[in-house]
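Subject: for your reference before the review

Hello V.,

The reviewers asked for a structural picture of the protein, and I figured it would be easier to keep everything in one thread rather than splitting it across files. Below is the amino acid sequence we used in the manuscript, unchanged from the supplementary table.
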Amino acid sequence: MHYGLHFPNFAIFGDPEVVVRIATTAEAAGWDGVFPWDHIQAGHWAGPVIDPWVAMAAAAVATKRIKIGPMVTPVPRRRPAKLARETVTLDHLSGGRLILGVGIGWPPDVDFEYFGDHADNRVRGEQLDEGLALIDALWSGDVVNHQGKHYTATDALFHPTPVQQPRIPVWVGGMWPRKPAFRRAARWDGMYPIAAGDGPDDFIAMTPEMLAEIAGYVASHRETDAPFDVAVNGSSFPGTETASPNAFADAGATWWIENIGWPPDVTLEAWLDFIADGPPR
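And here is what came back from the structure prediction:
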């Protein structure tokens, strides 16, 4: 099991220097990854919002070992060619430590519709699939010609290629039990499931039984025996504990992603102290 940290790119974490402090503290304490959210606005949350990509670049320079990546970046809000450039640059800057978490994005109004982007989940799903295919082609270093429903590339040749081969790992995020995201994840290198409740803005705690069901569903759609990561969102913070990392490992998890930032009244220094105590191995 690997151990990472997942936290907002706003509120008390809405400062690039804070992301660097989290990354350096986590690396010294034995954590394996730092994964900020990627939102344009904070919605109902108060406080500043930062660009996580700039902050991740700063964290990459300040660390040597720990994995870095967005969890997740909404590809439908990005230009695939720009994202391909950014990911390869960050992969080189970090010495091959980038994990690219992707999804269709949420919430559909605040981060999309309010800026003239598509709020429809199916359209964003199309954009995600086509965007990932184009990004993967651009990573190859070969000449790319693409004429799709949403994106175009003509005689595109992107160098350098990523440090990591055969490609930068792509983890697909999704809200279970909505299954399209998990059929999509089966085609890539990992998944990051979130358990959805009954309402559109309702989330519930993941359980080992639920994760085992998701892992089985994804495995049934895999067409390769290449390594595949299963990341689970959990908490070991006092008073908010979920099931243990060991229970999730038995259910198929390869990464425990500690949900930093909740409860929202915990101070930054308290979170840093918690991180400094090391992962719940």
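For the response letter, the relevant points are probably these. Residues 2-276 form a domain with the TIM Barrel fold (CATH 3.20.20.30). The mean pLDDT is 95.

Happy to draft the paragraph if you're swamped.

O.
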